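ok so i was messing around last nite and threw this chain in just to see what happens. nothing serious, just curious
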Amino acid sequence: MRKVVMHREVEKKRRQEMSNLHASLRSLLPAAQIIKGKGSVCDVMQEAASHIKKMEKKIEELKNRRDELKRNRWFNSSSNDVDEISSNSVTVNTVTDGMEILIKSSYLGLSRVLGELQKIRDDDDDDDEMDVVSIVSTRLINGIFLHKIHVQARDITYLCVLMLQDRLIKAIK
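result:
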């Protein structure tokens, strides 16, 4: 008789623990995946497995996106990328009020770049079309410099950005 009572207590404790784990698992599911009503243990476990698979897929997509951004980024600050930052490059990005010009070069001087920007400004009919707002230069490893030029401009078109990037690449060569 004593064994039966002990067995009942052990089984009751096991069922209570399973119930608590079931409730805990169910509470971790997003609201959209929580089954209406009580829901069976199997239903909750299927939803949890489905949610985990979706999250694994999302993590993989985010990792791929991060890797793509790293590959497309023209400068990576880690010291293992010395070869990547050994040549000159120009990237022109549009920003809210104009353009951001990123120049990676082996020389500090920006006179040719600023001269080219002045020529472009002089070519425009309207003098207020483009203004250099700020220039920040940073010396990186192996004597490479990173220049960030913020240019305010009223009319920015895709072709204008490509034309500017092409002209600045020629200017730093």
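not much to say yet. DSSP finds four helices and four strands in the chain.
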